[in-house]
Prior knowledge:
The chain is an all-alpha fold. It contains 13 helices and no strands.
Amino acid sequence: CPVTCGLSSSGQDEAGGTSKGKMDDEEEEEETEEAEEEEEEAEDDVELANDEDGEEPENCVGWAKQGLCDSGDHAEYMRQKCSNACSQVGADASGSGEEPENCVGWAKQGLCEGDHAEYMSVNCKRACESTDVVAGGGSEADPFVCAQWATMGLCDEESAHSQYMQINCAEACKAAASIDPNAGMPAPFGFFELLIVIGFGYLFIYAVRRTMLVDSARSLEVKRTLGKEQVIGLGKENKSAVIGMRAEKATSRNESHGQKRSAKKDKKS
């Protein structure tokens, strides 16, 4: 009953058109959101593809040549960020790539082992595999220089250059090993030698003290007898002795006079 309800056919069309328009707007918004998500995924795929294609930091090749692909501190970073450079440098070192011109000489010197093994395995792998260690390392070391190095302790097992020295400066190392480090030094004192030294020291001190005591005794004796001898040495008059003698004579005279007087008194009585 369109008339009773107050609705007309045109009103129904307007209501239907309005609801249909809202549905179309919602569908457009959903399509827009889906398109944006697809674009973001595509950008991520492009970035990932670029990484896989070898877009790595420009220093990767240099780091790889320095052996950082195998270094314990940097290996994980290099595998993640410089995997292509590590693979390429490794292939060059072990394949047909040119190695540094010094690789063969280094390999002959035994540097494929020891402190330089990591570098050599990366940069001189073919040289290490195909070259044997030889005496002289491809060029004989100067004997004078070898002797200097040997005296500096480079032949010791603890030295980083021990392997090189044993191969290239073997004679100098043997000579250095045969030298007694205490050569030219006085022999250390043993127990008996020490006792002898102490004994001589005691005797020396005793002799000095005895001499001093004898001298002191003589000095005291001279002081006690001073004045009783008329002369001291040849032709030297001892004035004290002369005065003392005169005093003794005067005393003796007085005593004799006194005795004579006493004797006379006795006779008179």
